[in-house]
């Protein structure tokens, strides 16, 4: 190596490579990671104080180090080393760092290679695993900017959604596999897709141990077989790099970009889930979010983990029109006096909804008040994401099939996973041949989906729930990279029946704007329409207080408080919810002149959507069958 005077008077090092020369000089420490500039490639990395460090360059796909460039402590700005290298050929090299004698990947890497097989164990020394500098993808689309009230959200795992052979896609378990399923998502009626971690996480953590008592009762650390972190929620990850194992083409950056474009072209927003641990700074987290926002033009993020601090992240000006979903937060910490923001970009992953509505579904006492609260909740400050099932907990099919978790396959003696599932097996634990149990489970699933689609806010479906996908009672399938954790697309006639029902429900919700308004309903007649925007009914047509022991209620929406796309007012809707094991008669409020009630949906009937067979309801009341829900539509006779 020969020290020379570089461009613009910078001191540099000239290195002979055998195939040409490269020139090393001081870089720009504000450009984190490896960035191609007009002058060459800029490399920037943080180095602990007093530690030796060097940049390792490799010929593409080669394991041996081609060049090792010292990162001298005297050249650092603070604890940051930065070098600019001229003479590197685009796409012909990869890199790592050697810091304090250990070879490490760049935490800002945009693309990793050597991790193309999902679940492969990380070697003690990362031979064959290095970082590349990918071309920035040329995006064709922009974020869709769907408001929360217009969204129907679908959440899934990239690998698990199509990995099973029943998915019938060519590129199973990949970004491309998701793209092959876009026609299905459109037919289902969803318009937003949330993906569990798509970045480079390490699915085989080192040295898992478990403390168990020996023969004398003394707790000892015992090695156990390595389990795959299938979900991807890990404390250490390479957050800037789309996961190579999720790529069918070997070009994960471009493949993911193509997926986002294809989703947008189909009218489907793309929301990414990120787990951030407490060790990460808000500065770093914002860098991550900015990269995915600006590079791939995704529509938003669901942020979980202790590092996801809503008060700090929500202040970022670049993200003010990007959806930011958090698991519960105090809006007063963000908006102070509760003044509505110009763009309602924050969202709440609504755990309270899941608990209360599962309890009401199975007929617990004292839930009607909580049910109506979560059913109408739609704050002016932020959106709410409502769901019955998520990755953590029972699927919806298991919610009506199991009362106990069945997690023995996880390797923790069934001690992992939540014990509070608010589930009911409908009379038999797990699989059964009893037809009465099957019919009741189907009715309960229809009830759950109907509750979800008639709640204000944003409904979220966990992938496969719409056709009764089961995890065999496992409520914590974090390590199940197999047919327990994958979506099974073959669920027979029952799955087809539920799927058809969910499709109709989604379309029904979309066709009635009174079910998904931009503002919370006020239970008042502030337009002089003759009745409140939302009202509650029981054996009496109008009442002001709900009985604590009651398990049934009627809910009416006044259509004059919502407008269709053509400017005309919506229909009146009356939804009778009866989660009791007995039939109940609900009083019907009177409609304006020349309107009649038509029974449009009834989960107590085998053909739940009546369609053209919707019958006029005579009289002043309606009987709702046990554990059933009816929807009446009030319109011109």
Task: Give a quick set of tags describing it.
637 residues; single chain; 6-stranded antiparallel beta sheet; alpha+beta; disordered N terminus
Q: Please identify the oligomeric state.
A: single chain
Shape: elongated
Main sheet overview: 8 strands, parallel, barrel
The class by helix and strand makeup works out as: alpha+beta
**Quantity of strands, as a count:** 32
Segments where pLDDT lies below 50 for 5+ residues? 1-11
Determine the number of helices (DSSP H or I, runs of at least 4 residues). Answer: 12
Share of helix, binned:
10-25%
User: What number is the mean pLDDT?
Assistant: 92
Describe the protein in words:
The chain is α+β, with helices and mostly antiparallel strands and 637 residues long. Strands 13-14-19-20-21-22-23-24 form an eight-stranded parallel barrel. A six-stranded antiparallel β-sheet has the order 1-2-3-8-5-4, with no helix packed on it. A six-stranded antiparallel β-sheet has the order 25-26-27-32-29-30, with helices on one face. The chain starts with a strand and ends with a strand.
Topology of helices and strands:
Elements lengths: L1 E4 L5 E6 L4 E6 L6 E4 L4 E6 L6 E7 L5 E6 L9 E7 L6 E7 L2 E3 L6 E3 L16 E3 L20 E4 L1 H5 L12 H6 L1 H7 L3 E4 L3 E3 L7 E5 L5 E5 L13 E6 L9 H14 L3 E7 L6 H15 L3 E5 L5 H4 L9 E4 L5 H4 L10 E4 L1 H11 L6 H9 L6 E4 L9 H4 L35 H19 L4 E5 L29 H20 L22 E4 L14 E6 L14 E7 L5 E4 L7 E8 L12 E2 L4 E4 L3 E9 L1
Parallel strand pairs: 13-14, 13-24, 14-19, 19-20, 20-21, 21-22, 22-23, 23-24
Antiparallel strand pairs: 1-2, 2-3, 3-8, 4-5, 5-8, 6-7, 6-9, 9-10, 11-12, 15-18, 16-17, 25-26, 26-27, 27-32, 28-31, 29-30, 29-32
